[in-house]
Amino acid sequence: MTLFHFFNCAILTFGPHAVYYSATPLSEYDTLGTSIKAALVYLGTALVKLVCLATFLKVSENDSFDPYQELLKALIGFIDVAGLYFALTQLTHRNISQNHKFQAVGLGWAFADSVLHRLAPLWVGARGPEFTWDFILQGLEANANLVLSISLAALGSLMWLRKNKPKTLIPIIYACAGIVATMPSITSYLRRGLGWHFPKVVGFELFTSLVMAFISWQLFSACQRPSS
C-alpha cells in the first residue's frame, strides 16, 4: 500500500511533464535536448542561489515571517530570471521556432525543479506507513509550478527575443514576469505571514498558475499579430 501511494504521488508529480512533452509538438520537433540543457542551467542556478542564501540569510529560530529576510529571498530569487535569460538567449538550440523554444526551456526548468525539491521528500515520506495528503498536494504544487515555469519562459521570450512587440504591452509583460518570479515569496508570506495552511496555499498556486498562463498566452498571441 505504501509503495502504491509513492507511485501515485510520483506519477502526479512528474507525469504531467512527460504528458506535456508527448502531447504537444515538442516531441515532433525533438526538443528534448533543449529541455535537458535548460534543466542543467536550472541546477547551476539553484547552486548559485543556495550559496547566496547560505551567505546572506541568517538561520531563523522560528518559522515566523521576517520581511527583511523574505525581501532578500525575493531578490536572490531573481537569479532564476538570470538563469532563464541564459537558457533562452545563450544556449545553442536546434532550428526550432520561438514558440517551441520557450516551451522546451520552461518544461526542462520545471522538471529539474521538481526532481531537486520533491523527489527525495516523496521517496522518504510517501513510502511511510501512514497515508497523508501532503504528498498529493506536493504533486499538485509541482503541476502549478510547471504552468508557472512555462508562463515565465513565455514572458521571458517576449522580453528578450521578440523585438517588434507593441509598446503598450511592454509594462504588462514585465509586471506579469515580476509576479511569476516572486511567487515563492508570495506563497511564503501567505504561509508564514497570514498563517494559511498548505492545502489553501496549493489552491492559490493552482489558481494563480492558470490565470498567469491565460495572460501569458494572450500576450504572446498579441505580440505575434502583425502590426498595422
Question: What's this entry about, in short?
Answer:
The chain has nine helices and no strands. With 228 residues, it is mostly helical.
Notable characteristics:
globular, mainly alpha, 228 residues
Description:
With 228 residues, the protein is mainly alpha-helical. Helix content is 76%, strand content 0%. It is globular, with a radius of gyration of 18 Å.
SSE layout and pairings?
Blueprint (H helix, E strand, L loop, with lengths): L1 H22 L8 H25 L10 H11 L1 H11 L8 H28 L8 H27 L9 H12 L1 H11 L4 H27 L4
Query: How far from one another are the termini?
Result: 61 Å
Q: How would a crystallographer describe the biggest sheet?
A: none
Which structural class is indicated by helix and strand composition? mainly alpha
Shape: globular
Portion in strands: under 5%
Radius of gyration: 18 Å
The tally of helices reads 9
Organism: Populus euphratica (Euphrates poplar)
Pfam family, one: DUF2053
Keywords: Cell membrane, Endoplasmic reticulum, Membrane, Transmembrane, Transmembrane helix
Membrane topology: Multi-pass membrane protein
